[in-house]
Design a protein that fits this description.
heterodimer, A: two-stranded antiparallel sheet, 12 helices, 11 strands, globular, B: 2-enoyl-CoA Hydratase, Chain A, domain 1, 2 domains, eight-stranded mixed beta sheet, 15 helices
């Protein structure tokens, strides 16, 4: 398994960035692409080097869980957990749904919408969870709920801080009420790390809405967000239908919620690693003393 | 007052006919008693067959029925000494969630639940039972109070969902729901939740994390409204009926998946057909469950609640080779 992941990481960008899907409307040449926001023509290689941030306008494109992992962990420090948990079709939505799951597994090299495991960041061990929007829109079903629960329970057992990066449209509709209940399970698990005095940091990326926003995403001791990420409970379309008017520009973005007091910081992708590392070093200060104490 | 359900139409027509015959019979000119008896038998059979074969969509209609008892009806009919309390102490008071102190069979409780209106004017005041963040925060305040004073908690679920409005989003609807769910998962008081009508997604779950979750037979509880599901999955709101039947939102399905603990039977035809009987059923069920839960220590309650929710999920653990290319 480790070798498989190493291989994956080496081929990283090729696997991680199927540009034709992530960046629609790319020019025909295989090496070029367009910024989704300012339409600047960019080398794909440049976008890989900036982990998906447009050098012209600073737009943060969606990136893969593997890219994020590289960004937030020390090289070769990651060990994946619970890769063998896979979604079922409990309500019988049918073959089409199962095929979509299989397709997402093969194109993302993930086995569900979240990658979880342990790693180190600047030498400090942590439990990490990273959602990937390419896998069924990052939707939360039983597997995502189970992985988050196990992640946080292991964080408690091993006295680790945890970091969770979210990117999700909400609950996995094909799992019906089973997916709604994942909100309760994951939120209850966050309570365990709270009570154990272990830091829990969340990083909200585009988009983080509905069931995921309204559970473990917003419950971080510190809640960070990437610039211009769409965040919220109800989708813009639903709100517009309800109030029968257009929403103001900038509504439900990270910057909007920073101003409203629901997010601690909006952090540029290039600074995310150092920001998280610094927060963990301070919130986890006593944890390190405790660990040293244990060794003596 | 009440809307007529599509499935009920043949039954209501038959009942009208019986009423007409009775009136004629009362004049004493003709003896219609045997015809009446025959029609009554027919009505009874029809009733049983209609309500035994309700689809998910039929259940949605019954759950939304305007004559169906609401939270306040339960508060007035099965509790005593109800004293409503208002406000979240942060910003305002949300009429879509009623909350307060009360007793049930003498037991002191904190109670709260979504409140729908019975007619348009009340619905406007109650926002059709769709809470804003202030509603969840009011419930949180009362839950903490219950914990502090060692009171039991009873919550009633009846909402199309959390309100999808600009101001609700601005005030952190997602954070309010998440915090309420997390708080409720760890409250050191017994919690009994009763789904009495519509359980609409996160807006329902926000106040529905219970040691015992009871569900009235014809109520529904869903991850998304059938209309919303149809719009998202098939981009066609007219497929709501199909969505309702696929989403597994009925009490039987949820019991089968172990997502609710008990189903409370309703009078034939639905709670609105005999509210008094419904109140009696719900009262007995709440009392019985609170009695059971009172035997557990606060720590045990919280631990059992965690374990109960911990097992909610359906997934497969496979061999590594099955997944890798």
């Amino acid at each position: 398994m480790a070798r498989f992941l190493d291989k994956l990481r080496k081929q990283g960008p090729k696997v991680a960035n199927p540009n034709k899907k992530v960046l629609a409307g790319a020019p025909s040449e295989a090496n070029w692409t367009k910024c989704q926001s300012c339409a600047a023509v960019l080398r794909k290689k440049t976008l890989e080097e900036t982990t998906g941030v447009c050098p012209e306008c600073g737009h943060h494109h969606k990136i893969t869980a593997w890219q994020r992992l590289e960004m937030l962990s020390d090289q070769n420090s990651f060990k994946e957990w619970d890769r063998n948990l896979v979604s079922q079709d409990p309500l019988g939505f049918g073959q089409e749904y199962m095929e979509k799951l299989a397709r997402d597994r093969s194109r993302t090299k993930l086995t569900d919408a979240i990658l979880t495991g342990r790693c180190t960041l600047d030498g400090r061990p942590l439990a990490i969870g990273i959602m990937d929007f390419r896998f069924r829109g990052g939707s939360m079903g039983s597997v995502v709920g189970e992985r988050i629960s196990r992640l946080l329970e292991r964080a408690v057992e091993r006295r680790l801080p945890s970091v969770v990066v979210t990117s999700s449209g909400g609950a996995r509709m094909q799992e019906g009420m089973l997916s709604l209940m994942q909100m309760a399970r994951t939120s209850a698990a966050v309570r365990l790390v709270n009570e154990a005095g272990l830091p829990y940091i969340t990083i909200l990326t585009d988009p983080t809405t509905a069931g995921v926003a309204a559970s473990f995403a917003s419950l971080g001791d510190v809640v960070l967000a990437e610039p211009q990420a769409i965040i919220g409970f109800s989708g813009a379309r639903v709100i517009e239908q309800t109030i029968r008017q257009k929403l103001p520009p900038g509504f439900q973005t990270s910057e909007f919620y920073l101003k409203k007091g629901f997010i601690d910081r909006v952090v540029h992708r290039a600074e995310m690693r150092s920001t998280v590392s610094n927060i963990l070093s301070i919130l986890g200060a006593n944890l390190e003393i405790e660990k040293k104490g244990g060794e003596q | 007052m009440s809307t007529i359900l599509e499935v009920e139409k043949p039954l209501l027509e038959l009942e009208d006919k019986i009423r007409e015959l009775r009136e004629v019979d009362l004049t004493g000119q003709v003896d219609l008693s045997s015809e009446i008896r025959q029609l009554e038998r027919k009505a009874k059979l029809l009733k049983a067959s209609i309500y035994e074969n309700l689809s998910g969509w039929d259940r949605v209609q019954i759950a939304r029925h305007s004559g169906r008892p609401t939270t306040i009806d339960y508060l007035e009919n099965i509790f005593t000494d109800f004293t409503e309390l208002h406000g979240d102490r942060l910003l305002g008071d949300d009429p879509a969630i009623v909350a307060g102190l009360a007793r049930i069979e003498g037991r002191a409780c904190v109670v709260f639940g979504h409140q729908k209106g019975k007619e348009t004017k009340e619905n406007l005041i109650r926002n059709f039972g769709m809470p804003n963040p202030e509603g969840f925060r009011k419930a949180c305040r009362l839950m903490r109070m219950a914990e502090r004073f060692g009171l039991s908690i009873v919550s009633f679920i009846d909402t199309p969902g959390a309100y999808p409005g600009i101001v609700a989003e601005e005030r952190g609807q997602f954070e309010a729901i998440a915090s309420s769910i997390m708080l409720m998962s760890g409250i050191r008081s017994p919690i009994v939740t009763v789904v009495i009508g519509e359980g609409g997604s996160g807006g329902a779950l926000g106040i529905a994390v219970g040691d015992r979750v009871l569900m009235l037979e014809n109520s529904v509880y869903s991850v998304i409204s059938p209309e919303g599901c149809a719009t998202i999955l098939w981009r066609d709101v007219s497929k709501a009926k199909q969505a309702a039947n696929s989403l597994g939102l009925t009490s039987e399905k949820l019991k089968e998946l172990n997502l609710v603990d008990q189903i409370l039977p309703e009078p034939l035809g639905g709670a609105h057909r005999d509210p008094a009987e419904t109140f009696d059923t719900v009262k007995k069920a709440i009392t019985r469950n609170l009695n059971d839960l009172s035997r557990s220590t606060p720590n045990q309650l919280v631990e059992d609640r965690y374990q109960k929710y911990r097992t909610m999920g359906r997934f497969r653990e496979v061999e590594g080779s099955e997944l890798e290319p």
